[in-house]
Fold each of these.
Amino acid sequence: MADDPFKYFRIEAKELADQLQKGVLELEQGGGARAVQRLLRAAHTLKGAARVVKQREIADTAHALEDTLGPYRDGDAAVSAEAIAALLGYVDTIAKLAATLASPVPAPVVKHDHAPAQATRTAEPSPSDAFRTVRADVAEMDALLDSVAEAHVQLSAVRESFTDIERAHGLSELLCDQVAARQREQRALPSAGQPGTSLLAVYSVAEELRSVLGRVERQLSLAIDQAERELLQVRSAAQGMRLLPVSVLFAACERAARDAAHALGKQVRVETEGGNVRLEADALLVLQSALIQLTRNAVAHGIELPEERQRAGKPVHGTIRFEIKRRGERVACICRDDGRGIDLDAVRGAAVRRGLIAATASPSTSELIDILLDGGITTTKRVTEVSGRGVGLDVVREAAQRLSGSVSMGTTQRQGTWTELVVPMALASFAALRVQAGDTIAAIPMDAIERTLRIDAREIAHASTGQQIIVEGHALPFMPLAAALGLHSTPSAPAASWSSVIIKAADTRVAIGADRLLDTTHAVLKPLGAYAPASPCIAGALLDARGAPELVLEPEGLVAAVLRGTGRAASDQRKRHAVLVIDDSLTTRMLEQSILESAGYDVEVAASGEEGLEKALQDNRYALFLCDVEMPGIDGFEFVARTQHDPRLRDTPAILVTSRNAPEDRARGVKVGARGYIVKSEFDQVALLGLIQSLLR
């Protein structure tokens, strides 16, 4: 193939054009002098690179962009709407010029002496060139990854054979030692002279053998280690080239929102989250058209005009938010807006006019949304550049079908609309934390991990809903990873400590106990297939550096497994215990209530001993009293004494919580019948829950 003079410039030009577009949109939102400086640097870099490859038109356009930004360099004046429009026009021109740069194609093979004229033709760029210029072909990357995995397997075999060389080196040293000892023995004999010639020759050969084997051992060891490092780098690079972050789509969505809003006289801001999730470039190409269409739909049908938003008590700027989330074996792309919501009456009217439903029908909201997703329905009364043809959602639905995914939608009147496009995770990669439980190594997606911490076994409380730990004042369900995965291992002594991973899924947090936290990795999920069914806790597998499979855990499945385990403990108990907290301090009451409710107890509070006693006498359902000592009126000692003298309450245990730590105070607490005495200066949430659990068994 002929040399491509624009091979690297195309990539750089696209990246710089994306930076320029993002910078201009930021500037339009009031980015200030810093945004101007960033734009000027990008434009200057592009101008210089274009001149190197003799692309004068691109260089001149970049120069014109610099000239337009010149008056705003110091940030003293707001950038005018005319300047913004001109800047975006320059960016569009640069992007188009860069996209039209021809790449050479192979000349056809001919048998004539002279090549035909078409041998010098150039390839026309396709819409996917923007993605394909930043990565190699996916099939080639897969083949490369397979080859790297196979090379690791072969390298492992060489490393195992290396032990034979080590053993031979050891034998050579032993031989040298034995020959040397024989020489010393001969010298020690009174009748012996110098060792014989044969013995000296053997010793010489043994020394040379030891030297050669030692050198081979060192060199081979270094070569194997170097080869392993190189293979790891190749594998990492190949995975990175195979996939691209979803964030590359956000600039196009921001531009689409801006252009649609200007066309309709609206004001819109775009927020993004989760752009670090990586997908194959072909999938991104399909998703781009769908997300841009969702952006236009949100602006046209959802976001209200500024004056309408003001009347509704909303900010003048509407907000469109893109969220990219990993869900098991799938990736969800969610587009939300804070607009007026779908006009369901208009959808129903359009469906009646098209004969999709009867005029007397009363379809539900979900049925109307299904009709809307089927396509061909528009609620816009006139055709504009942005909407009105009823084909917008066809693009989204077709994108889902092409990627073997699904699309769903929901709306809340006067609050907004969300649309969710879900595609298979097999097309994606993600960051993960590798953990070890017994002999099993597994990976947990990083986006589901809130934090990790080391906990002592004594910090695990056996509460009414099973094992729990206290994290930042909240009790979280705890379960060893091996138990959550249902791994059967030989019984052993309880672990003295755990590496705990706090996982959040579906707004629920749990703690998983692992034996070790190993490292982080960038994983490409491999589905297990229909013939290898797994538990709901397992999303699939990844291949480690040597090509061996490791489990990838499903956060939602893990959370469900932990909750099922704690649910069994709760169901064995058959009911939630009710606790009455009595304290005249609002802060203390709320703290104790939060701790107990997080641990699964029903909690009521009283602000005085009198109120607590009244509640206890009226409702004999409390399983335990948690009472302060120092309160005006009826103090804690008197409260406990009165409950112990009442036949209905004497079997209800009471715990006193106080700042008084004198021996006589503790003795008085025991005398009146308190079953526990906790000093506030020594307050320990785990100890409190453990004491309550022991009293309620």
Amino acid sequence: MDELYFRQIQIGPMANFAYLIGSTTTREAVLVDPAWDVQALLRVAAEDEMTVVGALVSHTHADHVGGHLMGHQIEGVVELLEHCKARLYVHKAEAEHLELPAGELVKTDEHTRLELGGVRIDFIHTPGHTPGSQCFKLSDRVVSGDTLFIGSCGRTDLPGSNPEDMYTSLTQKLMKLDDATLVFPGHNYAEHATQTDIATEKARNPFFRFPDKETFLRAMGY
């Protein structure tokens, strides 16, 4: 996909990854998980001569939509909307967590699709880590948020988490993507890699290799 603009940017003290995805034809981009230092993320887009027209939220935990900078609590999504004419794409199960004007908030579901020029982004609802967790599929890659990490998966012991949903999201959605699909996670938790692929995760990720849901749940402590 020659038209694809794609940047992975590590940001904040929790090793978050934010992403810029867009079209080199229209010079429009969306920012995935604007948090911690939104101005720095917008500078990357500006340096690449891209205009940020929206933000995609993988889930509404503070480290993905807020964060803190120089001792001050900030809301990344609010700061983004103060500087950009943008729309915020949040799964409908978590939209109520963000107090934004109705015209700036798009409630997404499994059928949501966004097109920037010839670049198409499909939204995949992957509950488990949170009720409204979602991944973003484009061409040969998927941005997996805190659903799938390199060699691991998101926590299911937090408020709103659900290990049964996580098992379904991993086995019935992400595992069914093409083996060659590149995976870009929401945190830099691996020692020597910042991306993986579905084939590698099928072979090496223990959370992809349980024979059934009951075994998975026992391993997760349930």
Amino acid sequence: MTASGRVIAVGIDVGGTFTDLAALHEDGQVHTTKVLSVPTDRAHGVLDALSASSISARDVNHIAHGTTVVTNLLLERSGARVVLCTTTGFTDLLELRRQERAALYDLARQHPAPLVDRTQVVGVDERMTPDGVLTALTPAAISDAVAAVLLRAPDTVAICFLHADAHPQHEQALRDALLEALRAAGSRADVICSHEVLPEIREYERMTTTVAEAYARPAVRQYLGGLSARLAAHDYPAPQVMTSSGGTLAAADAAEHAAALALSGPAGGVTGASAIARALGIAHALTIDIGGTSADVGVIEHGQPLVERGGTVAGVPIALPRVLVEAVAAGGGSIGWIDAGGALRAGPESAGATPGPAAYGRGGVRPTITDAHVVLGHVAAGSWSGGVAINADAARVAMHTLADPLGVTVERAAAALIATADATMARALRRVSVERGVDPRDVALIAFGGGGPLHACGLADRLGMPRVVIPPHAGVLSAVGLALAPERRESLASCVAQVETLSADWLGAVLQREAERHHHNAAGRTTQSWLRARYAGQGHELDVPVQRGDDGAVIAARFAAEHRRRTGFVLERSVECLSVRVTSSAPAPHVHFARLARTGECPPDYDDGRGMTRSVSGPAVVRLPDATLLVAATWTARALALGGWMLEKS
């Protein structure tokens, strides 16, 4: 990598197959590096990427990191041993869930098992109502609960009592007693209270989110502590860590907010895509990030990533704010196979980084989506970034394992495998758009990741989308997004009230209290606030932006407008709010996107000084520095001055 001034920010995205690095320099230029991930030691991949980039530690201002530690813990069920303390009579809540079926018409389908086994749940004799104490938490009840917890020797303890979002006194009292007893017994186990993790109504979501925090925190703390130490040993600063909501936290703070890191990696990609959208003047778009293991789809509204609350990660409900991302198993390493009915399938099993697709020549023998592209000539043989050399013969041999049983040519099997993956990704794009009132035909598709430019035209055709944007640095855009992500503090607070009766003074007092409690008003920071509101009696809420000076009438009207946009109707009912969310962000680094001839992405007759661009009509293949662009028939690609490509139907 050629230096161009001091590095102000480095983004490092550790994926299942590759670890990507993007460095932002003082002059706004971006330089990127790609290396193979080390699945058994993710931190090693971070150091490998820094070493390969030739960045001097003394030139680095800060490092932003996207981690899949929490996602992997939840997928593999390899987190901490958690004991859950909850109100007597509600110890089965994790199993009962919301009493919905895993699949409406499949009676054999089961929900994933809870993170805490029923035998590890301790009932505590106490009870709060919305108005206060119903059953007091006595010293005897505390003593019984402490004894039951110590008997189970936990790694962490989660406490979730009824109505603790409004009345946390019982949780605080038990926490203090447990910490004293655990320390006396020589245990360093954490005790985590639900009113600190998610101070909102709905005991089930509050409980699952608190349990997820307790389940993941020890491993996250160990990983981030170890990574910080290893970076420090090479004189690099401790990392900032991307949260699910699109900002970053210092490593020490992120270690205490493990549940907020569940979508750390994918959030970086949507953040990077939104920066490209703003640079191009695109207000609304769908995004798709196709990596080696999965494809992540997202939504951009008004030039910003769409942030929502709730959702599940690996079957675990986590009711914290997150950049809307839906992942499907359709990455370049997804393995093709034939099911018992003779149908061709793609994924969810992935070849990952080891052994990887057969074309990588690292021991893989099973056909993957990457191998299909190699067979069809979309990905050229030879050396690529990340230390990968593509072997076309190995890809054909692997694809024969699909083609021969199906009685077709390897080219036909490869095309069918790609079409199967496209269908899976198109369904995900429809879910995140149509369900939110967004017509895909009215917005652009921003495609990135190693596989995004290969599948962009096929996906746009399936959804009737008129435009596709391939960003500059498409293959490593998640790392660029991490480097661009601002440091962000976020707080939640319960505030149940009827909106129409609220005064501007009430809202101002609530926002001031949160600002002071979490230091949101620091100089140079941008603050945003939302009320979570619903019609009285509804079971679904919407986040409504608010600011000082808004009164109940203004907020109710704003809620009605958003409800109409999202659902198509409004109700003649009062509106109630449940909680307030406040974020404050530091200024984001500046980046100057510009097409550079040295990257190899520039067309031969492209002259940035004279504003010339070159159009490429499909079918055609354009090799990018870190990916491959497939321009399908009936599509035309135009090189953009900021780098990347704009594709439109011919």
